[in-house]
Amino acid sequence: MSGSKVTGTVNLAEEGKDTIELPLVDGSVGPKVVDIRKLYAQTGHFTYDPGFTSTASCDSAITYIDGDQGVLMHRGYKIEELAASSDYMEVCYLLLKGELPTEEEKTKFSTDITYHTMLHEQLIQFFRGFRRDAHPMAVMVGVVGALSAFYHDSTDINDPHQRMVASYRLIAKMPTIAAMAYKYSVGQPFVYPRNDLSYAENFLHMTFSVPAEEYKISPTIARAMDRIFILHADHEQNASTSTVRLAGSSGANPFACIAAGIACLWGPAHGGANEAVLTMLEEIGSVDRVQEFIAKAKDKNDPFRLMGFGHRVYKNYDPRAKVMQETCHEVLDELGIKDEPMLKLAMELERIALEDEYFIEKKLFPNVDFYSGIILKALGFPTSMFTVLFALARTVGWVAQWNEMMEDPGQKIGRPRQLYTGYAERPFVPINKR
Ligand code: CMC
């Protein structure tokens, strides 16, 4: 394990007779972990942890979360500080390379990214192959996976240079692919990237400009877009990141791994929650129906959950949700949207849920997705694009984690075991005797 050290051992009672000692490993911050790698060899037992609620699947120096305190840090810098004082390109550099860039390094990095913003022209045929009403996440999974068929010079995973080129390509091309998925769904012409614009400005330009008229980008809106990207950039070993690592652990190419991550992110328990929040708010419709939906969320026999509430790791307010709420007010002010009913409804829902015994006892707080949908809707994105924006922003996290894994000399293929509950051996019955 790189960057971690064994600081002791724990004793496990082995079927009431023997005890075995397992190393206790210390990272830099956070709880120690019990290293169980030798457990099976020593005892013949596996551990059982569906959903990985007590399992560290790797060691990583990129992102740290303290779920009880509501803390999120990238390379030691708190997310609130990064959101307030940094920008997305700087955060990308930080995640990928480990340190904040100097001015010179940042300019070079941002310029290098712009060299890769265009897509191979033939890839346009891929978009045309989809139905116009396809969900843009379905388009993203397909097109990002297809990149491996176009950029053969960056698929050798054993070459550090090619790995970095693939990473830059993915960060640079995601906004282009996302904007094209949107343009295709509304039947407007694709808009090529403009490298004189910032990352967020360029994305807004490719998404919302049309050849018929000039498109002016508001600095407040571009800043809000950039901040949304920062807030989604990485989140340690969440489901999609673990998917990227697991896919990558077999030696799959980076584009295929990121396509796998996008597929995982799509689900409503993960990145799909931002879309689900807005659908839920629309369904609730008015403040006087909030109690009814809170009751549904608490009812064990009702599958309904308050979308945008709860988190596997945060048992406190998600620090990203706080920044998102502030950004929401800024965006609505800039757009001159007064008394947005959806925001009022969301704030009332939050207030009531935070006072409710059920949510207090289960430590269910608003997460990053609770307010993001309201902002994205105000910016003019259809709900189906919300998770696409999450995927765009999370790409840097995925490639940073994938690179970290590929650079680890102890890296192994991910291969969990199972608790088998099927039949024990039984004789085969010929078909005429069944
Ligand atoms: N509404 C009502 N009850 C909930 C909710 C919710 N949103 N979330 C959890 N609970 C209850 C759940 O029913 C369970 O109760 P009990 O112990 O009585 O069975 C308890 O709280 C623990 O829930 P869990 O499902 O065991 O917890 P988990 O860590 O497996 O799930 C979660 C975490 C995020 C999937 C879940 O809280 C959830 O489904 N939230 C809504 C979807 C959502 O907002 N997802 C976005 C997550 S943040 C962005 C991202 O990472 O992609």
TrEMBL record:
Keywords: Transferase, Tricarboxylic acid cycle. It holds the Pfam family Citrate_synt. It catalyses: oxaloacetate + acetyl-CoA + H2O = citrate + CoA + H(+). This is Citrate synthase. The keyword Transferase applies. Belongs to the citrate synthase family. InterPro entries: Citrate_synth-like_lrg_a-sub (IPR016142), Citrate_synth-like_sm_a-sub (IPR016143), Citrate_synthase (IPR002020), Citrate_synthase_AS (IPR019810), Citrate_synthase_bac-typ (IPR024176), Citrate_synthase_sf (IPR036969), Citrate_synthase_typ-I (IPR010953). Pathway: Carbohydrate metabolism; tricarboxylic acid cycle; isocitrate from oxaloacetate: step 1/2. The keyword Transferase applies.
